[in-house]
Amino acid sequence: MKNNEAVEAVKEIRVMMEKSSRFLSFSGTSAILIGLYALAGAFVARGIISPVKEIPGEYSTPGWITIAPHIILVALIVFVLSLSTILFFSARKAKKMNHSFINGPAYRTFLNFFLPLTVGGIFCVALLVGGDVGIIAPVMLLFYGLSLINASKYTYGNIFWLGCSELLLGLICAFFPGKGLLLWAIGFGVLHIVYGIYFYFRVERYSAA
User: Fold this and answer.
1) Nearest-5° angle of CA 79, CA 83, CA 88?
2) Distance between CA atoms of 126 and 137, rounded to whole angstroms?
């Protein structure tokens, strides 16, 4: 009896320590929706890019500068929708768990996530304006993977493996620039959906039980 009580006490202490040091309000549903947003964005971007790719010279053509504002707009819409979805579902989950959404772990998680992501985003804009579009997709995947790995120390550890998957896909994409949009859609779309489904059934439902 005493052993069982000791085990339960250790479990309670562990849960309390995780709540105070890690951001645990992430939702698998938000990851699935982000993946769907990315696939929709890739579809729209394909329609914008296709006419330019038909011009001789492909990636070096100045025609890319003319579509740069449209590509940036699509990327911003996907980003804003994704961020809004994360915040909404995370806040709702935090409320269900009866703890504050705005806390130290949340600040650390978002800071470590957005710092490399912001640098990567600015770098991608510079590449797009300069016409160096062939390496934008791998750069986005690589910086995003680094952002996930960086943030995984302050939230669910399995996000580390999602980050590694994005890094691997980014490296593959670097060797096949002509397939950039396809690999981008797989990285930001398909991987998010697969991870969201895994997280929902293997982490969220298990924790709730």
Assistant:
1) 150
2) 13
Find all residues with CB under 8 Å of 59, minimum gap 6, and list them: 131, 132, 133, 134, 177
Side-chain-side CA neighbours of 55 within 13 Å: the count stands at: 11
Q: What is the CA radius of gyration of the chain?
A: 20
Altogether, the residues listed in the chain come to a count of: 209
Q: pLDDT by residue (tens digit) across 185-204?
A: 999 999 999 999 999 888 77
HEC per residue, 82-128: HHHHHHHHHHHHHHHCCCCCCCHHHHHHHHHHHHHHHHHHHHHHHHH
pLDDT tens-place string over residues 108-138: 888 999 999 999 989 988 887 777 777 888 9
